[in-house]
Amino acid sequence: MHNAHDIALLLARFQFAFTVGVHIVFPAFSIGLAAYLAVLEGLWLTTGRQVFLDLYRYWIKAFSIVFGMGVVSGLVMAYEFGTNWSIFSKKAGPITGVLLSYEVMTAFFLEAGFLGVMLFGMNKVGRGLHFAATCCVSIGTLISTTWILASNSWMQTPRGYRIDPTSGQFLPDDWLAIIFNPSFPYRLVHMTLAAFLSVAFAVGATGAWHMLKSRREGKISSEPVRVMFSMAMWMATIVAPVQILVGDAHGLNTLKYQPAKLAAMEGDWTSEGHAPELLFGIPNMKTEHTDYAVGIPLVGSLILTHSLDGKVPGMKDFPRDQRPPSQIIFFSFRIMVALGMLMLLVGLWSLWHRRNNTLFTSPLFHRVALAMAPAGFLALLCGWVTTEVGRQPWTVYGLLRTADSVSPVVLSSMAVSMTIFVIVYIFVFGSGLGILVRMLGHEPKEGESNPDPAQAPEILAIRTHPAVVNASTGKGA
Amino acid sequence: MMDFAHWLPIIWGVILIAAISIYVVLDGFDLGIGMLFALERDRTRRDVMVSTIAPVWDGNETWMVLGGAVLYGVFPGAYATLLPAFYLPIIVMLASLIFRGVAFEFRVMTRGTVRERHWDFGFMAGSTLAAFCQGTILGGVIQGVSVTDGTFSGSAFDWLTPFGVLCGFSVMCGYALLGATWLVWRTTGQLEAACRHWAARLAVGLFAGIVAVSLWTPFLHEPYLHRWTDWPDILLVAPVPLLLVALGALMASALRKGHSRVPFLCALGWFFLCLTGLGITIWPYAVPPSLTLWDVSSPPSSQFFQLVGTAIMLPIILTYTIYSYRVFRGKVSETDGYH
Ligand code: HDD
Ligand code: HEM
Ligand code: HEM
């Protein structure tokens, strides 16, 4: 039987997962794209090649849309802790709230302050300063990642705190221990690489689309298209294997600090040495068994302990009320890993095409690259679902239960807010995605002349954004 | 140490009021410009209006994120009672701000299609609704929130009172006035003339709102009344209404005489006085009428750590914010718009 409180809790959880799941896609896009734009502008300033400027102009439009959506969906997050998780905020605020404040002061203001200059200011500040603004925005996104992941990782592997016996509040004892908690370095590296990979595959798919289109029209593809495709494939080739190694290290870290989560990810019920690695199965929380299991003998132990007889935890080691729901994370984890492997294969395949000089001419490869467009974002979302659902039934691991974190808000209010968010998000972010896709459907424009970088400010300003208005000289779009 | 622990929440209270004031003023004129879309139908002039804020709106909204984060980290007790208490207006405000925020890009990207009109409408409606919600939330805080054992114990619609609605409309008027006077400063020609005209009317509306709210507030709670009538407190507060009238007179004459910057500065002055008056009224409560700043604050170790970061970062933030405003200074005229 469910009472109103249980349903309100369920709605609060679903709402948080929905809003943060939408949010995270945009920052991940911004993190990767800002870095890409900084690289493009840097390359253009040093080599003076027109193609980098063309690509910069092309991608900065996408950036302005994605960033705007990241900001408005993030604003919701900053208040949702209080509206939906007030007990959690009151107890953990002295730690997580402070980390969020640091994020605002060191990252959000930096991004926001220089975003205007980046988007609109090229004809006002000159190239050096404009490049600096692009770099500031990119660094801002990375600092932002650092703080929010410190906060999230602290919730996963809390350290450096004391619990106030009367109020139940977490009191900070050692800020370095709080920030550099055991899972933080792994999560930070893994997430940042995930953002880079996501953008690499999005950029690669855009390039592939335009090459396929040119081919259909019997033209040869333009230089910017080829350059963006090649850059994206280099990224995939280099970053995908690193990401897999980092993911493996992350898993070992989880084994050490959150064994129940790991057992649920693996679908293992009894703790054993010589454990198999399950490729498929349906974990059943009631019968405490993974049905239809298909596994490779010994590999589970090998991956998780790097030895054949290493002992791997099972869910029966933990009381029933401390087990995360295995069905969800068993699959989300496998989808992420499968996508990671696929990315690796695409990267290797691109090397083979490069050697044969067919990188820009193989329609099959281009079709595959196009299909991989959402792969990074999907893997990233699956990773987060694994992380967060695997933390259940806790918000602060082992210390504060999710059920004890929720606000005293009545069910009807929760239902109203959920409805508002679903409708508004689908409408607004759906439209945004549509606008983005349509925009990327246009081929990047090639610069008419081969201008020398000294005239750059004017060109950039006029092309980067239609809303440029030059107040002092009246020049502009 | 005891003393320091006593002072920390006071320092933070001042910082929070300052952050809220900066937010109200900066995002106030952004939202005001959104509302003025209802009065200005011409696309070229709308583009000029948007151009004056497009490079800075994100930074302006970040002050709101800072306000939320400071409440969460330094006054978690207030964050955890106020947000559930104003659950519905906050959700509606956040949803409205989504429309406002994406409209900057979307209306340009959908140029020439019917959807451009939709995003223009979203920009206008989102700004208006967000302003109204912020006003009712402000009114709700002044009215007070029912709290038992440090948690919110009222019902979902406690905030919806005549006083709250009055505050909502006053804030709408105020933001529209900020927007109009900002445009008087930053634009020329027909748009500037229209804004002068609107500003005069909005100023009258806002003044009426301020008077009504000020007369009503002291009767909401006993301590409020004493704050404004007891000797010697009255010495402290008496200049507030006088300055209010003086600034109003100055604004009226500046609007008539064609000054470009003075009306905006006068509107800022009004906001500053109102927020100061508000601070004086509810002091030392964070959640009137029961929780003081000390009841809701986090442990000194949290407050101190955050203060160190703030002391270092805030001057830097202000420096580059001013820098980015300076990059985009000067009048934006209609011929500068997109063609
Ligand atoms: C492009 C995205 C992407 C790709 C290809 C991978 N991951 Fe991942 N993974 C993420 C994106 C991600 C993520 C979204 O970024 C997560 C969620 C939280 C985090 O820090 O990273 C994550 C979490 C995450 C966790 C959960 C840790 C925890 O919370 O306890 C593990 C064990 C792995 N990953 C392991 C892997 C392995 C072994 C991969 C190799 C094939 C892999 N990931 C590919
Ligand atoms: C780093 C920032 C994040 C923080 C601080 C955070 C914190 C939280 C909190 C407080 C909850 C609610 C309590 C709970 O149910 O455990 C939650 C749940 C959840 N979050 Fe996160 N989260 C973060 C990022 C993400 C991201 C990016 C995703 C992407 C999909 C995500 C997915 C989820 C899911 C699926 C749940 C629901 C889990 C469940 O209730 O079963 N989280 N998280
Ligand atoms: C649940 C927790 C989260 C909260 C409360 C939150 C809050 C916010 C807010 C308020 C903004 C807008 C900032 C601005 O005004 O410029 C934002 C943007 C951003 N967030 Fe989140 N966020 C959360 C989860 C995450 C996660 C998990 C990541 C990445 C790992 C992340 C990375 C970013 C980045 C890089 C930006 C700036 C780029 C952009 O706006 O697109 N956030 N977030």
Automatic annotation (TrEMBL), chain A:
It is a multi-pass membrane protein. Keywords: Cell membrane, Electron transport, Heme, Iron, Membrane, Metal-binding, Transmembrane, Transmembrane helix, Transport. The chain crosses the membrane at residues 20-46, 58-79, 99-122, 129-150, 188-212, 224-246, 328-352, 364-386, 406-437. InterPro entries: Cyt-d_ubiquinol_oxidase_su_1. Its main location: membrane. Pfam families: Cyt_bd_oxida_I. It is found in: Cell inner membrane; Cell membrane. Belongs to the cytochrome ubiquinol oxidase subunit 1 family. This is Cytochrome ubiquinol oxidase subunit I. It comes from Acetobacter sicerae.
UniProtKB/TrEMBL annotation, chain B:
It is a multi-pass membrane protein. Keywords: Cell membrane, Membrane, Transmembrane, Transmembrane helix. Its main location: membrane. The keyword Cell membrane applies. The chain crosses the membrane at residues 6-39, 86-109, 121-143, 163-185, 197-216, 236-255, 262-283, 303-323. Signal peptide: none annotated. It is found in: Cell membrane. Belongs to the cytochrome ubiquinol oxidase subunit 2 family. This is Cytochrome d ubiquinol oxidase subunit II. The gene is cydB.
